[in-house]
Write a structure and sequence with these properties.
The protein is an all-alpha fold. It has helices at about 1-25, 45-50, 50-65, 70-80, 100-110, 120-140, 145-160, 170-190.
């Protein structure tokens, strides 16, 4: 009888602790794990309805860096098709943002986000916002010029200044795809429910 009472008490304490942790602790970064890409990558409302935490992550990055959500999403769409572990196999580019090792290390040093991971969506969103902000500072490109922002994103700030993209037809086509997708996302985003979480 006494043992049963102790077991019940221990169970009640455990439940109270779990409930308290869930309500009072600050939100921590979600585990990296394996996240499946959204089922419809061509509709930003559908993406955010399926993955509401992505909308929060993008809005946080947008508020922090001043970068438009639809442009960041357009760049990520072109770079990884929202695949968490995307890799071309020909460079160190990796994750949602396809950041290469050196640029990712620069981002971590510049922002202090040393625990950031290219396979965590929130970190990838923050990286793209930060990089676009650097592009504005170094190349003078508007956040809303998604075509030029993508060229600078792919070629780097120095490569963009040198115009290395003019020799790469595939890259000019890719930048055009980004511009088109950003326009689609912008139109869709204006029609999305204002808050889906």
């Amino acid at each position: 009888m006494r043992m049963t009472g102790l077991v019940r008490l221990a169970g009640a304490i455990a439940l109270c602790l779990l409930a308290a942790c869930g309500r009072n602790e600050p939100e921590v970064a979600r585990p990296i794990g394996n996240e499946i890409p959204p089922s419809n990558t061509l509709n930003i409302c559908a993406i955010f309805a399926e993955k509401p935490h992505w909308r929060r992550d993008m809005e946080v990055a947008s508020a922090k860096w001043g970068t438009p959500v639809e442009v960041m999403m357009g760049i990520m769409w072109r770079e990884s098709r929202f695949r968490q572990h995307a890799s071309p196999g020909t460079s160190s580019a990796y994750g949602y943002s396809q950041a290469i090792n050196g640029t990712w290390a620069w981002y971590q040093d510049a922002t202090g986000n040393h625990a950031g991971d290219r396979t965590r969506f929130s970190d990838a969103a923050d990286f793209i916002g930060w990089y676009m902000n650097e592009t504005l500072k170094q190349n003078g490109l508007s956040f809303y010029d998604s075509y030029a922002q993508y060229l600078a994103y792919h070629e780097g700030h120095n490569g963009f200044r040198r115009g290395t993209y003019w020799e790469k037809d595939f890259l000019l086509r890719a930048a055009g795809e980004v511009r088109t997708m950003v326009e689609v996302y912008r139109t869709q985003l204006n029609a999305c429910p204002s808050r889906m979480v």
